[in-house]
User: Fold Lrp/AsnC family transcriptional regulator from Maritalea mediterranea.
Amino acid sequence: MDNADKLLIDTLFENGKTPLKELAAKVGLSAPSTSERLKRLEERGVIKGYTLNVASDQIGYPLRAIVRVSPMPGQLQRVTKLIQQTAEITECDKVTGEDCFVCKIHLKSIEQLDLILDSISQYAATNSSIIKSSPVKRRLPPL
Amino acid sequence: MDNADKLLIDTLFENGKTPLKELAAKVGLSAPSTSERLKRLEERGVIKGYTLNVASDQIGYPLRAIVRVSPMPGQLQRVTKLIQQTAEITECDKVTGEDCFVCKIHLKSIEQLDLILDSISQYAATNSSIIKSSPVKRRLPPL
DNA sequence: TCATTTCGCCTAATTATGTTCGGTATATTG
DNA sequence: CAATATACCGAACATAATTAGGCGAAATGA
Assistant:
């Protein structure tokens, strides 16, 4: 991971469709060499894939929430499965400490939150917070 | 947003580099029409951009944590700025409820967490959880 | 030390991919 | 019901990415 590799990752994180030519110019290499670099980054698993940023409010989800979930004794497996099967839960991390899971949920309405929490509450205690804004948008840590 | 548009978004979310030809085949349209669809999705702001999935452990960050941050009275502005300026904080949402912020942090080591928390703790109470696994990887809600 | 291999790079040619350009059918509107 | 707008198509064109062949510097090993 030299400077060129870092620049490639940084640039592609900003715009995953940056043309090879432009990438090559930025790192000061030829197109084929740059392509080789990328291939190696992919093979090494540094670059796991290319994806989209979608505006969730444009696809019918004006609300987002963060829900902390603490399964009741003996319900860990069930709750894990339930979380994975709830399509509106778009991200979930299992963490140390009091709460077991921290989930991000996309919602069509507040009512939908109630609905989803109800389905969980038989097996876990939950703590919900509506997202009001995002002071830090997804970004890379320093390379 | 008809079925074709949804398929395009779903497919590109999985692989942001899916060739137009393949997208066209999938939605049953010609390449130019598919390209038009994409352009409109971008113009309407549904597709906000293309980006990368990077393996954070491959770029020197084997640990991730979720930190909830509750600024002390009168320190909201300062804390907001501090969070934004802390490069290891790769995501932060401002939420309703007890805690004001929920942050995701990428870490080189546990010591680094201590360091970062120290810099915040003069202005806010914090509650940290180390991420042990991610039962739900980032995905789209139902389209 | 000097031959040998490996590696990363280059340019040029080739192939793949995406866009533009008429032009048509089907809705939409005055 | 004519006029316009929309979404689509195939063919031609333009752009972008990959492959092929070869060069030079650093690492490897006799």
